């Protein structure tokens, strides 16, 4: 959906500049204003931080628990891939890697877990793509939720970033994701312009 450059623009936003325990607590508080969507964003941020420290370790976050409690309509699940996450190589891995796959409104994220238990429920329903944009998509998603708070406004913000000549069909069909977010984005794109909707969505109150 969004290009790498657009994702990078979002990823370089306010959330990316928040460091330290006190500011992190502030960020969590602000994301909490978005309810379950904000908690998913927070847990994704924690997962990304774990990656930089010692590789993704999903059992040190509550991401899976939050998705089971309330996934906000996102398609997600566990799968196994033969891709090598640790090095840049076209060679097939010697054994499959267990991954948690989540279809965010701006694209799929693929998180490799360090707990080698094999595939576990729920099974991911869809095609697992590459993981190269996972970090950017997580950072961009956190920023969008921080600013807009609701699934509808997040999706509308994404629509506003798409090419003005966009005809409602993604240029990268393989990156499209099933579920509530696709329906929201399609609804925004196909809505008559005569409705007088604003060109940009309002930012959430801070």
* Helical fraction: 40-55%
Low-confidence stretches: 166-178, 194-200
Major sheet description: 3 strands, antiparallel
Strand portion, in percent?
Answer: 5-15%
Integer-rounded radius of gyration: 17 Å
For the secondary structure, the number of strands is 3
Distance between the termini: 28 Å
- The overall pLDDT average reads 78
Strand order of the largest sheet: 1-2-3
Q: Provide a count of the helices.
A: 7
Q: Helix/strand-derived class?
A: mainly alpha
SSE sequence, one letter per element:
HHHHEEEHHH
Q: Domains counted in the coordinates: how many? A: 1
Architecture blueprint of SSEs:
Elements: H1 4-11, H2 21-32, H3 35-54, H4 63-69, E1 76-81, E2 97-104, E3 107-112, H5 134-148, H6 151-161, H7 180-190
Antiparallel strand pairs: 1-2, 2-3
Account of the protein in words:
The protein is mostly helical and 206 residues long. It has one domain (4-195). It is 41% helix and 10% strand. It is built from seven helices and three strands. It has helices at 4-11, 21-32, 35-54, 63-69, 134-148, 151-161, 180-190; strands at 76-81, 97-104, 107-112. A three-stranded antiparallel β-sheet has the order 1-2-3. Strand 2 (97-104) and strand 3 (107-112) form a beta hairpin. Helix 5 crosses helix 6 and helix 6 crosses helix 7 (180-190). The longest helix is centred in the N-terminal third of the chain and has 20 residues, at 35-54. Residues 166-178 and 194-200 have low confidence and may be disordered.
